[in-house]
From TrEMBL, chain A:
Key word Cytoplasm present: yes
Source organism of the structure: Daubentonia madagascariensis (Aye-aye)
Keyword flag Amino-acid biosynthesis: no
PANTHER family: EXOSOME COMPLEX COMPONENT RRP42, EXOSOME COMPLEX EXONUCLEASE RIBOSOMAL RNA PROCESSING PROTEIN
Record Pfam families: RNase_PH (PF01138), RNase_PH_C (PF03725)
Main location: cytoplasm
GO BP of this protein: RNA catabolic process; rRNA processing
Domain Exoribonuclease phosphorolytic, chain residue ranges per copy: 32-166, 196-261
InterPro entries for the chain: ExoRNase_PH_dom1 (IPR001247), ExoRNase_PH_dom2 (IPR015847), ExoRNase_PH_dom2_sf (IPR036345), Exosome_comp_Rrp42_subfam (IPR050590), PNPase/RNase_PH_dom_sf (IPR027408), Ribosomal_Su5_D2-typ_SF (IPR020568)
Subcellular location: Cytoplasm; Nucleus, Nucleolus
Name of the protein: Exosome component 7
Automatic annotation (TrEMBL), chain B:
Protein name, UniProt field: Exosome complex component RRP4 isoform 3
Organism in which the protein naturally occurs: Daubentonia madagascariensis (Aye-aye)
GO biological process: rRNA processing
Keyword Metal-binding in annotation: no
Protein's UniProt keywords contain rRNA processing: yes
Alphabetized CDD domains for the sequence: KH-I_Rrp4_eukar (cd22525), S1_Rrp4 (cd05789)
Length: 291, 263
């Protein structure tokens, strides 16, 4: 993770501030920074989203391609994640520096989606055992300002909401060979239901309390963090601990309760923003990168 | 708990929001400024093929016969006498150094110092030969572009709102609680690690957010502008200052007050 050097006195100041529920930028321990979400920013993808959380900038593109289903799940499609930590984000990511972090984030994404209810994979099946839709989700880290996992999970959910998969029909002729026909109308698509797609809430332990949405400076003061993946109904799908420090079982319990509370609010805000954006229709002003 | 998600809004051009009649003459490196050879060339320009060409990206400033280009965003160029705030990244590894200095200064520490000399390659040598310089204790660091820090007589300010600020010429702004006693026996190298009171913390956080808003709106940073911005932000909650609409409102008020004060 990109790290920033801090003096002892600065760290002490941050830790004491967290104890009193007043962080350096005036937020409380459970407050998020202002989030900006925009979908459909990359034109040649099936779905895309860009999320800005403070100084963290993430771009996600989803491409739907036809492939062979996996042997163990012949009636389902699947998702493939790839995370690219661009050297734009911080000089540490130059060359192969960002590969470790990229694989770590990709593995976390695989784990949180590794259950039956996050995404309806059966809807991605075209022909059992022969054809299915594979969704390649590519995450690009443009700027690193702390709290990467949260921002990436929000962007992935927004991109999946925005994904339009072309509708296909399977035609069987007399000999039994199957043909796949693509609809003529380019706007005839199926959309995915992202109701149960989880979002990650990262809780960093600073002193005796934990904070949500830590900046780079706060992450440098925290020895242990908990990544909790929560759905919109408050169901926890996956928990992961990062960091060298240790966590008390009681504080883990408290952190999970906080994450469920915070996660539900996160999901409601995201749903309302995505629906608001969709209601603006195709004529909405796209801001993109040069706005 | 607070959570706000919004759709992005296109940025407004600054000249529209300021209502300026004369547009700034913006140039990029390689642009011709003028073909009139009667002008003297200043910083950011060079003479080539009978015309004056810009070497940096910025706005053209003209003072009588002198033309220079003021860069919008530049790396810090040291001048003798500048106050800088810096972080120790690396140190000489010799035996005497280990014995003597490590007790006082470690890697990652912040210090305030004055520029003593500038070398031809741009490197500067610093000195802390006064009790007001030295290691910095508890506080908040804000990094801004060096071009936004106004050159003034003094860069150490004790603001009446209850905190002190050091405006480093290199763009590092240090906000810290005003020390109660002015006498520093140790000469500023022993840091005070006692908890800072909540009231002081609120002032420091508010100042930090005000400075970030001023910087986002590309306003020059000096004690008066920071103070006016602080006062304009008082009706709002500290964490709301960073919301785009509130930031614009506060900076607009600050700008008006500064214009009234000048005019």
């Amino acid at each position: 993770m990109a790290s920033v050097a801090l003096s002892e006195a600065e760290k002490v100041y941050i830790v004491h501030g967290v104890q009193e529920d007043l962080r350096v930028d005036g937020r409380g321990c459970e407050d998020y920074r202002c989030v900006e979400v925009e979908t459909d920013v990359v034109s040649n993808t099936s779905g895309s989203a860009r999320v800005k959380l403070g100084h963290t900038d993430i771009l996600v593109g989803v491409k739907a391609e036809m492939g062979m289903p996996k042997l163990e799940q012949p009636n389902e499609g699947y998702l493939e994640f790839f995370v690219d930590c661009s050297a734009n984000a911080t000089p540490e990511f130059e060359g192969r520096g960002g590969d470790d972090l990229g694989t770590e984030i990709a593995n976390t994404l695989y784990r949180i989606f590794n259950n039956k209810s996050s995404i309806d994979l059966k809807s991605l099946c075209i022909n059992p055992r022969e054809h299915c839709w594979v969704l390649y989700v590519d995450v690009l880290l443009l700027e690193c300002g702390g709290n990467l996992f949260d921002a990436i999970s929000i962007a992935v959910k927004a991109a999946l909401f925005n994904t339009r998969i072309p509708r296909v029909r399977v035609l069987e002729d007399e000999e039994g060979s199957k043909d796949i026909e693509l609809s003529d109308d380019p706007y005839d698509c199926i959309r995915l239901s992202v109701e149960n797609v989880p979002c990650i809430v990262t809780l960093c332990k600073i002193g005796c309390r934990h904070v949500v949405d830590a900046t780079l400076q706060e992450e440098a003061c925290s020895l242990a963090s908990l990544l909790v993946s929560v759905t919109s109904k408050g169901v926890v799908t996956c928990v992961r601990k990062v960091g060298k420090g240790s966590l008390d079982p009681e504080s883990i319990f408290e952190m999970m309760e906080t994450s469920k509370r915070v996660g539900k609010v996160l999901h409601t805000s995201l749903q309302s923003v995505l629906h608001k954006e969709e209601s603006l229709g195709p004529k909405r002003q796209k801001v993109g990168f040069l706005g | 708990m607070a959570m706000e998600m919004r759709l992005p809004v296109a940025r407004k051009r600054f000249s529209e929001s300021l209502g300026r009649e004369t547009k700034k003459h913006l140039v990029v490196p390689g642009d011709t400024i003028t073909t009139d050879t009667g002008f003297m060339r200043g910083h950011g320009t060079y003479m080539g093929e009978e015309k004056l060409i810009a070497s940096v990206a910025g706005s053209v400033e003209r003072v009588n016969k002198l033309i220079c280009v003021k860069a919008l965003k530049t790396r810090y160029n040291g001048e003798v006498g500048d106050i800088v705030v810096g972080r120790i990244t690396e140190r000489r590894r010799s035996a005497e150094d280990e014995l003597a200095m490590r007790g006082f200064l470690q890697e990652g520490d912040l210090i305030s110092a004055e520029v003593q000399a500038v070398f031809s390659d741009g490197a500067v040598s610093l000195h802390t030969r006064s009790l007001k310089y030295g290691k910095l204790g508890q506080g908040v660091l804000v990094q801004v572009s060096p071009s936004l820090v106004k050159r003034q007589k003094t860069h150490f300010h004790d603001l009446p709102c209850g905190a002190s600020v050091i405006l480093g010429n290199n763009g590092f702004i240090w906000i810290y609680p005003t020390p109660e006693h002015k006498e520093e026996d140790a000469g500023g190298f022993i840091a005070n690690l006692e908890p800072v009171s909540l009231a002081d913390r609120e002032v420091i956080s508010r100042l930090r957010n005000c400075i970030v808003s001023l910087v986002t709106q590309r306003m020059l940073l000096y004690d008066t502008s920071i103070l006016y911005c602080y006062e304009a932000s008082l009706p709002h909650q500290i964490k709301d200052i960073l919301k785009p609409e509130i930031m614009e409102e506060i900076v607009m008020e600050t700008r008006q007050r500064l214009l009234e004060q000048e005019g």
